[in-house]
Amino acid sequence: MAKTSYKTKAKWQRVALLTPGALLYGIFNFLPLLGLLALCLVDWPGIGPMKFVGLDNFLQLFGNPFYRDQLIKAFGQNLIFFAIIIGAMLVFGTFLALLLSFRTWGRNFYRSIFFLPYPLAGAAVAFLLELIVRTKGPLNVLIVQGLHLSGKPIGFLGDPLLALPTLAAFYSWHRMSFAIILILSAIVAVRVHLIEAAMLDGANRRQTLRAVVFPVLAPAFILIVVIVMVDVFNNADYTLLLMGPEGAPARATDIMGTFLFRSAFGGAATSVNVNFGMSAAIGLVTAVAILPAAIFLALRNLRKD
Amino acid sequence: MDKLFRLKPLEQAVVQLILIVWSAIVLFPIGIAVLNSLKPNLGEVYKAPFALPSTWSFGNYSQAWFGAHFSTYFLNSAIISLSCVVIVTVCASTSAFVIVRMPFRGSGFIFGCFMLGVVIPIRLAMAPLFVIVKSLNLLDSLLGVILVQSASMMPVAVFILTAFLRAVPAELEDAAKMDGALPFEIYWRVVLPLVRPALATVALLTFVQSWNEYFLPLIFLRSEQNFPITLGMTQFRLQFDVQWHLMFAGILIMLIPTIVAFLLASRQFIEGLTQGGLKE
Amino acid sequence: MAAITIRNLDKAYGKTRVLHGINLEIADNSFVVFVGPSGCGKSTLLRTIAGLEEKERGEILLDGRDISDEAPVDRDVAMVFQSYALYPQMTVAENIGFALSVAKQNKATIGKKVGQVAELLRLEDYLERKPSALSGGQRQRVAIGRAIVRDPKVFLFDEPLSNLDAELRVEMRLQIAQLRRRLGATFIYVTHDQVEAMTLADTIVVLRMGMIEQVGSPLELYHKPANQFVAGFIGSPKMNFIPAAAVSGLDLKGAATVGVRPEHLHIDEAGSLKGVVRTVEDLGSISYAYAALPDETLVTVTLPPEHSVVVDQPLALSIVPGRSYLFGADGKTIG
Ligand SMILES: Nc1ncnc2c1ncn2[C@@H]1O[C@H](COP(=O)(O)OP(=O)(O)OP(=O)(O)O)[C@@H](O)[C@H]1O
Ligand SMILES: [Mg+2]
């Protein structure tokens, strides 16, 4: 055809505009998500033929003590990990955001400092903080020689009781500014509309904070809880980097992310129990566990449009 | 309302004290790293971690850089993250443009599929993802990692860009259509210049996230010459674990690009954070 | 030559029907104004002619050629939007020349045509500015320039002046009338403004709920409204509608309602309409009284500047002979 019509061209250009993104996402993100549903039904160590086993992976996961105990431990420790982080973020985050919302000297400067760790790579943060908390590291020097808080150095990451909270502290140090920024923007948003009214009604500062500011913080809190929850139940970078896929010491830092990784790629070079089907099953179970939070997030985002 | 947020001098002092304490907590590890990365030997790090170096040993940085294959890692990271930035900004903006501005039967469904990726992290699907990458023969290649990382960042990017595109008045596009512009021209000449801030946000988020990504390269890369700096750091650590001053120097080298990106565009960064939510 | 014929045009958004069987003849070189209440489908009809909306059924003929399936750019029509829809990132010159650069014309040609248009619209001094640095009236002129440069057979305007203040609106209205004489093209124009409609139009099309109520010249519609809706819509202030039972001394011919324009009610001691004055509005050159008839129908009366009408006083009115309209129960004009 000598002259293709505008409409035909427009149709093809639309296809050409949509396709690259849709293909990229479809092949490397969406398809794998759907693939969970299929792969969880097979037993496959990554090479060789796949064996269809139906729901056996799930039966193993919930019935076989070998897997069940790992699942319970990983999930439980994941909950503790989450609780420490979210507690720290909400308490410190609210407190610091509130202080920054006042007419504090240098509040923009402080805000920049507080935000500094956020863009840093998880791997760098993990290695950096690990160096800091080693038994011969600066923090222990400070505790033992500087402040005399303890007679001997504390093995933060070596102690099975302390290791998980220490990792949670790393996470909180890294991500705290996320909470501060979200809460701060909620406070700033409310101040324009509501606070004036409350002040006109003669409320004093404490009453205003309680009656006006805290209620509007609820959405920010929920958002933080949901996002952190989705993140810590799939992301185990700190543990993988510092404690390995076995969640040393003695699986005291094992969480869902490490369990999932181990089930597909093995904990050590000698692992025998690798099964991509099991990994998919664990992924699916985790997805279902965080799905309510995730759906909540999606609905909130869509409503915003 | 001013009254509420103004502080009396005593209050100001207390607030300053608390903020300084938190600043110290934030800066402590970074400061220690800077200080000790300049010390001539391990002994000084052990004995007096808070003291200034006896001699300022800037050579530690070059030793770290050349010691492990740092330059290779660094280059790989640069290739991966810059490719991701280009791929994600182009693909996400074109897809978002079609979804928002040229809807058709099924475009809502496609948008829904993207939103699934916003809510379910790709890590949970690492097993099927591995199968797909393997079957495409992309294991242990930079291209494979680039495609996987780009795809993992598509959903949030599409989400941010659709929100922005919806705010562009539809009459502008009607006018362009009357003027005879085809979708490519409308996208490139009319719409894209108007969503530049969102594009900058997406580019920045993508850069930082792909520079920092550890998990996906860990799964898909085997040979050391392909390692990005996050994996390289693990190698580096095997080699220099006991030489703390070099460890600190290496870690700081790794942080430089993200800190620079952050300093250049902290405003977009914070905006992107409150818009797109945390996904690294 | 640019005569438009619209035949049996239907349009729906999903399940809601917006245009119902529109039939319309628009003569070459005429100025047609669409009026009607908000939501009646004026913009939709205009956008369907432009090609921005797909028709559902029917034909749109431009000089005998069915354009209803063509792309907007191929239709020889240009449109000026209510929000102006100027491209914010481009200069005035780039805005005006955009259609030409899309059509891959060379730089010199574009520059020449843009220059001509700018001269016509007195925009020469602003060519390098961005739209954000222009006043409302200037932006409006750029929007018109963008339409002119394509040299279309038909210009479509969707409430082009509604974002301007009253004074500028008058000025732009005169400019559009002048432009139309210079350009010799067919104009189709949507407005809410009675004065714009009456002064600019050769033909007014009154729409209601996606249907054409009446087509005619401004004075035709004013003097011979086809039905009660058109009678109430054309003319300002609105025509009074009085239940036939309240009127005496007229041959009602079975009408349900009698319509009288405010300017055709006179104060007359012997008048058959008796009411009580509720409000008086003095505008200087003219005054209006609002009187309630015994059955509480409120009628508007035009008064001369010097009048002695007082609120709460009784008022007797008579209808200027031959100036009443009779409407049947179905709203159609009788006789
Ligand atoms: N994109 C759309 N989707 C669904 N319904 C629409 C759409 N655009 C318009 N409508 C509906 O079509 C009807 C006609 O709309 P249109 O914009 O043509 O009215 P209008 O006469 O121009 O009104 P106004 O004087 O307020 O501009 C309205 O009821 C409107 O709600
Ligand atoms: Mg309209």
Automatic annotation (TrEMBL), chain A:
Q: Which residues cross the membrane?
A: 22-42, 79-102, 114-133, 179-200, 212-233, 276-299
Query: Which Pfam family, any one, appears in the UniProt record?
Result: BPD_transp_1
- What's the protein's topology in the membrane? Multi-pass membrane protein
Domain called ABC transmembrane type-1: residue spans: 75-297
A GO CC annotation recorded here is: plasma membrane
* UniProt-listed GO biological process terms: transmembrane transport
Tree of life domain? Bacteria
Q: Which PROSITE patterns match?
A: ABC_TM1
The record's listing under SUPFAM superfamilies reads: MetI-like
PANTHER family the record matches: BLL4140 PROTEIN
Q: Which family does it belong to?
A: Belongs to the binding-protein-dependent transport system permease family.
Protein name, UniProt field: Sugar ABC transporter permease
From TrEMBL, chain B:
Identify its membrane topology class: Multi-pass membrane protein
From which source organism is this entry? Devosia nanyangense
The keyword Transport appears for this protein: yes
User: What's a single GO BP term from this record?
Assistant: transmembrane transport
Membrane-crossing segments per the record: 12-35, 73-100, 109-130, 142-165, 186-208, 244-265
Q: Give me the Gene Ontology terms describing cellular component.
A: plasma membrane
The name this protein goes by in its record: Carbohydrate ABC transporter permease
Main localization (coarse)? membrane
UniProtKB/TrEMBL annotation, chain C:
Highest taxon above the source species? Bacteria
Q: Among the entry's GO cellular component annotations, what is one?
A: maltose transport complex
Primary location recorded for the protein, binned into one broad class:
membrane
Provide the protein's localization. Answer: Cell inner membrane
PROSITE patterns documented for this protein: ABC_TRANSPORTER_1 (PS00211), ABC_TRANSPORTER_2 (PS50893)
Q: What is its membrane topology?
A: Peripheral membrane protein
The segment(s) forming the ABC transporter domain are 4-234
Spell out the InterPro entries in the cross-references.
AAA+_ATPase, ABC_transporter-like_ATP-bd, ABC_transporter-like_CS, ABC_transpr_MalK-like, ABC_transpr_MalK/UgpC-like, Mo/tungstate-bd_C_term_dom, P-loop_NTPase, Transp-assoc_OB_typ2
Checking Pfam families in the record gives: ABC_tran (PF00005), TOBE_2 (PF08402)
Q: State the Gene Ontology terms under molecular function.
A: ABC-type maltose transporter activity; ATP binding; ATP hydrolysis activity
Gene3D superfamilies reported in the protein's UniProt record: 2.40.50.100, P-loop containing nucleotide triphosphate hydrolases (3.40.50.300)
Give the UniProt keywords, A-Z: ATP-binding, Nucleotide-binding, Transport
Which PANTHER family does the entry link to? MALTODEXTRIN IMPORT ATP-BINDING PROTEIN MSMX, MALTOSE_MALTODEXTRIN IMPORT ATP-BINDING PROTEIN MALK
Entry similarity comment:
Belongs to the ABC transporter superfamily.
**Can you say what this protein is called?**
ATP-binding cassette domain-containing protein
